[in-house]
Amino acid sequence: MTSYSNGPHDLGGDCHAWLLPEGHWGESNTGLIRGDGESLLVDTHLDLAHTTEMLAAFSPLTAGHPIRTVVNTHSDGDHWFGNQLVAGPGVDIIASAAAAELMTPTGAMELAKLWHREDQVGDFVRSVAGSFAPSGITATPPTHTFSGSLELNIGGRQVRLTEVGPAHTPGDVLVYVPDAKVVFTGDILFIGAAPLVWEGPLSRCIAACDEILDLELVAIVPGHGPVTDKAGVQRVRDYLAYVEAEATKRFEAGLSMEEAIASIDLGAFADMAEHERIAANVLNRYQELDPTRPRADRLEQFAHMADFHRAAGLNSHGTIGEGA
């Protein structure tokens, strides 16, 4: 994975990114868009410690431009569990309606429990995201939801929200700043690691990549990994199209899902971290091709990835070899 530093990073046009190297499980990015006398924050982090660090780093930028709006790009905990630290009077928290349905106290509690499971799923989660402690979280859901698209005025600046889910999750949103030509993609993009399709279908994630490629851009902030350009988007799209095609061939040949997962050679994409995500992505494609197959919940998806991670002898970064 490309080496890069902890944020904040100036993207130009009064837009900034806070990056958590190296973009592995839980190591999500956030963003700040400043307007006249106010700011918009894109996402918070998986735990309170990381969110506190990010807000402190952004404080010189928000001193005269307080955060009045928070946009959560989707419902995964590493993009909204820190909301409680920015919520309050005069602060609007926005997400898609589909995302908001999952941003509940029960959902937060179920995710946090994964760190304490005494089974292979718990072992896997602690291995890949042990530096996070999602405890003490007060679930703080959106105060404002939308479907489709929404245009915001942030201190005289246009910020465009576009719902592209169901894709990575049911309610993914792109945050685009037209005058700065900057987009914050949430987990539609993982740069340096394999993309992950919880909800899908894969074709929706491919379509979301196409939507990003159609924008006029100078900076693209993924949900995880370094700031990228359209070549980075294209590589994510190519991975998704490859997995979709390879899984389809195996389904049509009568291979079981487990056989398909084990037999797909990552080839040109073997340098991406988090190899285990192939298991969730193939599962997603098999569910689409066989509508009678029961939809897997998040725990089952984690279990398939944990199986692959163990069987392939992967390190904590989901690659072969040594790794922290």
Task: Briefly summarize what is shown.
This protein is α/β, with parallel strands linked by helices and 324 residues long. The protein has helices spanning 48-62, 97-100, 105-113, 120-129, 202-213, 230-252, 257-263, 277-289, 298-311; strands at residues 9-12, 15-18, 30-35, 38-42, 67-71, 92-96, 144-146, 149-154, 157-163, 173-177, 182-184, 219-221.
Structure in words:
It is globular, with a radius of gyration of 19 Å. Strands 1-2-3-4-5-6-7 form a seven-stranded mixed sheet. Strand 11, helix 5 and strand 12 form a beta-alpha-beta unit. With 324 residues, the chain is α/β, with parallel strands linked by helices. The two termini are 13 Å apart. Helix 6 packs across helix 8 and helix 7 packs across helix 8. It has nine helices and twelve strands.
Task: Please write out the topology.
Elements: E1 9-12, E2 15-18, E3 30-35, E4 38-42, H1 48-62, E5 67-71, E6 92-96, H2 97-100, H3 105-113, H4 120-129, E7 144-146, E8 149-154, E9 157-163, E10 173-177, E11 182-184, H5 202-213, E12 219-221, H6 230-252, H7 257-263, H8 277-289, H9 298-311
Helix pairs in contact: 4-9, 5-6, 6-7, 6-8, 7-8, 8-9
